[in-house]
């Protein structure tokens, strides 16, 4: 029999999916201590969790039969994805299960904020009758700025359109054609900030989106703007928001998520009357809990019974023998996608992938899936996986083209990724080293040999003497060790690129110091 362990509370509807399958035996054992889970996991083929269970490397190493880990929810921060991948364990999540619940909560917050409902309710229950104190505003004719236009953002837009609102959406992975087809105007972030009456954020929390709404962004907004965050704590700089609220630049805010949860009683947001606060309730509906329970049970069941892999975060290849050959290229494809996506500027329009060499005799769809996932991951994070990446490109109106050439070129096997945006075209070429590690060997017309791993500082510069020394000195003074350096140039003394692999994070302040060095043109930090 195939055994499934459910170690966190899961709706009975999800448990029922397992119990209805005669091939499966399901055990529900919640609140397990790590040592207990480590002891019993050896007997199970699948593990289903929510956020309480920490699926650490120790747990994974103790698992003798484990084939699948299913996470009922979006985030995977409680699962050691690398350890699971190394052991061949499929990790799945349910990125769409909370979509409607979170969209509805967002719109509830917009309405509550507009009509002062929480404050009016509290006042009336105290025996007061102060109608003039709680004068509200209508949504009709107002502009809603949506930062991040994925599944949840698009559902919020549908509801806003029915209220007669104008929608401005910022999302680098959304095409203008798709936006216009649903009555939404695509715009750069600056325009959204300047023109919106309401701004709601729906992006994952990444290094790039942390505090993406801070003092500088609040300064761009019109006076009286209203701010809503039901996505992730930390996207909005709470200290900057408090300042803007006190200065009445922002007339009100509705917050469901916070930088530190649960909220401390000393948090300034709790002391402001023009802030509506809920305790991370975006996914807290009966329907959402049932939906994610059923979805995780179905995808785990189907994987165990050989009926297909869905929502896999780490497993695009199914045939074991082919996997041995393609896995290094899958890794290369993901790294190549992540690197190029962070390097290119503008709104994505088309991905063009060309494969050449011996690998073209294999089905390269898993590599294409990895490339698509890598391209989308810097922005979409855990909401994109190997299985849904290609369909997400189509949803957002980004074209995908593939070609193959069995003829060897400069390298035995080569993957070329070309990304076209509304601002530029970027070509990056990747291959494998002799020990099967990913290498980037060409960027546009510049030849180089780059390890696309970890933290990298990508620099455009003039090819002049002294650059290497000044970079090394600056990094050393700031305690940053350079693990590797690579260079490429079009001609002696002309424009060049320099890439530094470093062992620690390069802060914005240090990036500014690099820009101040002689012969530096541009600086960008890339993380894979």
Structural class: alpha/beta
Count of individual helical segments: 17
Low-confidence stretches: none
What is the residue-averaged pLDDT?
92
Q: In total, how many domains does the architecture comprise?
A: 4
The CATH fourth-level homologous superfamily of the largest domain: NAD(P)-binding Rossmann-like Domain
CATH class wording of the largest domain: Alpha Beta
Largest sheet, strands/sense/barrel: 7 strands, parallel
Put the structure in a nutshell.
With 528 residues, this protein is α/β, with parallel strands linked by helices.
Please, could you describe this protein's structure?
With 528 residues, this protein is α/β, with parallel strands linked by helices. It has 17 helices and 22 strands. It folds into four domains: 1-96 and 284-312, 3-Layer(aba) Sandwich (Rossmann fold), CATH 3.40.50; 99-277, NAD(P)-binding Rossmann-like Domain (Rossmann fold); 316-453, 60s Ribosomal Protein L30, Chain: A (2-Layer Sandwich); 455-528, Alpha-Beta Plaits, CATH 3.30.70.260. The protein has helices spanning 12-19, 34-40, 57-62, 81-86, 99-115, 117-125, 151-162, 176-181, 189-195, 215-220, 238-246, 286-304, 320-343, 365-380, 389-395, 467-477, 508-515, and strands spanning 2-6, 24-28, 46-49, 68-71, 90-92, 143-147, 166-170, 185-186, 198-201, 225-229, 250-255, 275-277, 348-357, 399-405, 413-421, 425-432, 438-443, 446-450, 455-462, 482-489, 495-502, 520-527. The strands form four sheets. The protein has a seven-stranded parallel beta sheet, with helices on both faces. A six-stranded mixed beta sheet has the order 14-13-15-16-17-18, with helices on one face. A five-stranded parallel beta sheet has the order 2-1-3-4-5. Helix 1 runs parallel beside helix 12.
